[in-house]
Request: fold
Amino acid sequence: MSSVEPEEPKSLYAAREPIFPRRVKGNFRNLKWVIMIVTLGIYYVTPWLRWDRGPNLPDQAVLVDLANRRFFFFWIEIWPHEFYFIAGLLIMAGLGLFLFTSALGRVWCGYACPQTVWTDLFILMERWIEGDRNARLRLHRQKRLDFRKARLRVVKWLAWLAIALATGGAWVFYFTDAPNLLRDLFTLEAHPVAYTTIAVLTATTFVFGGFMREQVCIYMCPWPRIQGAMMDESTLTIGYRDWRGEPRGKARDPKAGDCVDCMACVNVCPMGIDIRDGQQMECITCGLCIDACDETMDRLGRRRGLVGYLAISDEAWETTGHQPKSVWRHHIFRPRTLLYTVLWALVGVGLLVALFIRPEINLTVAPVRNPVNVTLSDGTIRNTYELRLRNKHAEARRFEIALTGAADLRVDIEGTPYASVMVPADETMLQRVHVMAPPGSAAAVGDLTDFRFWVEDLSNGDRVHRDSTFNGKGE
Reply:
């Protein structure tokens, strides 16, 4: 009886093959350089911009002040109760992402995604230190670790680490005064949270941008799987015009198509895919394969566009010999993208209107219910309330407190014999007040009496109000 050796189970996971994109020149590569410079410039420079808000407010133009629960953006100041502005901006960002995806596919991923931007920067450093694609491939395939390979690796990793450290360091500057924090970091006087945050962001940037790269886009990011719901047959994505390129062959072969199988489009792809195989989840529509193919077509004296932006609906149209459709007319300005644009604009206009009509003073009322009411020695019924008076001005303001809605109720402000209090600049002050009903009055003997608190800024006459309820003895 013969025995059969059991087969070893096959692994479901393939080992990662490092990708070494070749340098390429062209319009899309230039566009990526411009976007990378602009976005990195905004990220690194913004915390150092100054904005004069007066003596009692921070002068950092963009600041997320967690200690005081405030967000400053140049002349705009967002308070905790105004979080709907942040929610509105997130909605606008989502609608903008839907708009660009429905029109141009994964254009966000290819040009402006932080993972793409920092990976481009890391690859640039790698190319400067180790050379272009062929040199990096030879170095990678070299089994022996000699002095030259070790030196290049160490220099490259130190360059990556410097970029990653600058990335993590720049992030924490958004949450406190940048010059003071920088001084504290170097003198080792900064809060441990700052050092921890910088360490975590430095490590993640170093690993994601230097070693994981395309794996973050393929396996960690959910957007490649979501984008299918945002795209349709008129969405522009990068594709290969196989009706022009096939069959592949040498340039001198009269029976061959325009594609000479030079592999330039594959060698420049940061995701390591072959766009000629059709649409793939890994494609981030960065356009580098277009630049590479156009460069080859120029050398051969053939028409550009063998690889280019096109939609599924364009294939049947161009296969029959028609000229490519107008990008703006057939792909950009269409009902779906116009709907996203209108929704995006409506949210933006709504936020602007809310920003300009919001009051500079605010009031919230919280009844003190322990006890619900107190009977004074003369029979007066007293209720106590805690008022939060918010002054958004850069100077202290005097607020007058009054009430309406019940003629037999009067208000007393705790701690002062006056009907007004001084609220410090750009602060929320908690003020306790007492509302009292005379003995035998309707409010005193009744159960519940509705009334309204009014607060007036005596400097300019701005007024706000909040409704509340007075608890009587219920006799």
Remarks:
- The mean pLDDT is 89.
- DSSP finds 17 helices and 14 strands in the chain.
- The first strand starts at residue 62 and ends at 65.
- The radius of gyration is 33 Å.
